[in-house]
Structures are given as structure tokens and as C-alpha cells.
Automatic annotation (TrEMBL):
It is found in: Cell membrane. This is Tight adherence protein C. It is a multi-pass membrane protein. Keywords: Cell membrane, Membrane, Transmembrane, Transmembrane helix. Coiled coil: none annotated. Residues 185-313 form the Type II secretion system protein GspF domain. Its main location: membrane. The chain crosses the membrane at residues 12-34, 116-138, 144-166, 296-318. GO terms for cellular component: plasma membrane.
């Protein structure tokens, strides 16, 4: 006869396993909410650092270019009197000269008056300086013909010097815009495809590209203001092409005007133009790289070959001299 075996009470064990399973399920569901997202925190830190660097670089560029643009400043009375005295007031209203100043980044009546006054004062100052140097400092050391020729040359240089500096400023400004324009087009394409308007895209691109090219950011900000102000939006876009004077910018402006006129998608045109501008920038880099060997020929002949010949021939010359 078998005796009954007393089984242990398994209810506490079952209860413990059920509690553990419930706790595990709860932790499994709640773990994404309880765990801190380090990636998101890191991305926020990176975004803040990027914004800080962008603002710092833009501040540096603004400090570097703060003396180049004096918009809205009224010209000094002395400059206005000089321009009126020499009957150059009509030139102050010349559209071609105003366009030249706008391409260099100077807008308004103040820069125009200062430029015209500089074209009057600079030759006078350089002529007086040349007269003092030739007839006082170099008195008796040179003949009269050389003195007069130097004086006339100094006056002529003083007349054309403001125009030369203005063209130099225009070239530097266009170079800065040309280098940053393909990247600006890529950003503009992203903004437009995300649903932004042209004004919003220009404003956003101006904020982002300011650390790379303050000139381009300034032009885009001005275009944004003109798009909001002018009744004819095509006029604002045309002004952007005229102020920059660049073929790539004018092509984009033409595409934007046609897209707005006929209702075609702007994103497709911007994508094609962005690719073309990148190809143009690459072709320009390849062109400069291909032009480098001919430019190095003369320096190599003048500086490298004499040293090479000296290194090769000097030991033989020393041996010959020692044998003799």
C-alpha cells in the first residue's frame, strides 16, 4: 500500500514568477520612456555648438567688413560742397555709376557723393605731394622734365585710383558670392522642397550662408526685403542679378521669374541649376590646376635650376681645384 506523498505548496512560487513576469513586461514597455536618450541630447549639443560657431564666424566677418558698407549714412557737407563746386551733381544721378557702386556693395547717396569727392580730392592731393617731393625734397637732383612728368603721372594715378579700388572691391565681392553660390543653391533647393516660400527660403539661406559669405547673405536679405516691399516681384529678383553681376546668379533669377510666371515647379529648376553651378565650380578649379604648370616654369628656371646646377657642379669644381 502506497503512502500519499505531501507535495510542497507551489502557490508562492507561482505568485513570485507571475510578479517577475509582470515586472519584466512593465520594464520592457516602459524602458524607452525611462531611459535617457543620449543621442537626442548629443544632437542638441551639436546643434547648439554649430549655431554658436556660425554666429561667431558671422561676427568675425561683420567686423572684417564693417568699414565697407555705410548704408543710409548721409554724405558730409564738405563732400557735397566739393561735388557741387565742380559741377558733378549730374554724375551723382548717373545710373551706370550707381550700378558700379551697388556691385561693389555700396548703396545710397552717401557712397556716391564720397566716391565723386574722392575722384576730385585724390588727384589734387597726389599732385601736391608729387610737387613737394620733386621740387622741394629732390630739388636740383633731377631735371625739370622728369619733375613735371612725375607730377602729371601722380595726378593721373590719383584720378584713376578710386575707380581701380572700386573695381578691386567689386571683383573680391563677386568672388566671395561665386564661391558660396552653389552651396546656397543646395540650401535653397532643400528649403523649397520642404514647403517654404521663396522669401522664407532666401531668409533661411541668408542666415546659414552668412558664415561663408557675408556679401551673399547681405544680398539675399535685401532681396527678401524687396520681395516683401515691391508689388512686382520680378523687379526684386532682377535687382539681385544686377547687383551681383554674375552669370550664375542671373540664370537662377531668370528661372525663378519664369517659374513664377508660368507656374512651373521651382524645385526642378533649382536642382538643375545647382548641379550646373557645381560643375562650373569644378571646371574652374580644374582650369586653375591645369594653368599651374606653365606658371611654375619661370620660377623653376630662375630659382630651382641655378641651385641644382650649383649642387651638381660645385663638387666637380672643388675636385679639379684640389688636384691642381
Amino acid at each position: 500500500m502506497l503512502l500519499p506523498i505531501a507535495l510542497p505548496d507551489t502557490k508562492p512560487l507561482i505568485a513570485a514568477l507571475a510578479f517577475a513576469s509582470s515586472a519584466g513586461a512593465f520594464l520592457l514597455v516602459a524602458w524607452p520612456y525611462l531611459k535617457r536618450d543620449k543621442l537626442e541630447k548629443r544632437m542638441r549639443q551639436v546643434a547648439r555648438e554649430r549655431e554658436r560657431i556660425r554666429l561667431r564666424e558671422r561676427a568675425i566677418l561683420q567686423d572684417r567688413h564693417k568699414d565697407t558698407m555705410l548704408r543710409g549714412e548721409q554724405p558730409k557737407k564738405l563732400y557735397e560742397l566739393i561735388v557741387e563746386r565742380f559741377n558733378m551733381t549730374a554724375k551723382a544721378e548717373d545710373g551706370d555709376m550707381a550700378q558700379m557702386l551697388r556691385m561693389a556693395g555700396y548703396r545710397g547717396r552717401g557712397p556716391m557723393i564720397r566716391f565723386l569727392a574722392a575722384r576730385i580730392l585724390t588727384p589734387i592731393a597726389m599732385t601736391l605731394a608729387a610737387l613737394f617731393y620733386m621740387f622741394v625734397v629732390m630739388a636740383g637732383k633731377t631735371n625739370l622734365g622728369v619733375q613735371l612728368a612725375a607730377t602729371v603721372g601722380a595726378g593721373t594715378l590719383g584720378y584713376y585710383l578710386p575707380l581701380i579700388l572700386l573695381k578691386n572691391r567689386t571683383i573680391k565681392r563677386q568672388t566671395s558670392i561665386r564661391r558660396a553660390w552653389p552651396d546656397a543653391l543646395d540650401l535653397m533647393l532643400i528649403c523649397v522642397e520642404s514647403g517654404m516660400s521663396i522669401e522664407g527660403a532666401f531668409r533661411k539661406v541668408a542666415d546659414e550662408v552668412g558664415s561663408q559669405s557675408l556679401e551673399l547673405a547681405d544680398e539675399l536679405n535685401l532681396t527678401t526685403a524687396e520681395l516683401s516691399y515691391f508689388q512686382d516681384r520680378r523687379k526684386a529678383l532682377d535687382n539681385l542679378g544686377l547687383r551681383t553681376g554674375l552669370t550664375g546668379v542671373k540664370a537662377v533669377v531668370t528661372s525663378l521669374i519664369q517659374a513664377e510666371r508660368y507656374g512651373t515647379p521651382i524645385g526642378n529648376a533649382l536642382r538643375v541649376l545647382a548641379q550646373e553651378n557645381r560643375d562650373m565650380r569644378m571646371a574652374e578649379a580644374e582650369k586653375r590646376a591645369a594653368a599651374l604648370p606653365p606658371k611654375l616654369t619661370v620660377p623653376m628656371i630662375l630659382f630651382f635650376l641655378p641651385v641644382l646646377f650649383a649642387v651638381i657642379i660645385t663638387p666637380a669644381v672643388i675636385q679639379i681645384m684640389t688636384h691642381h
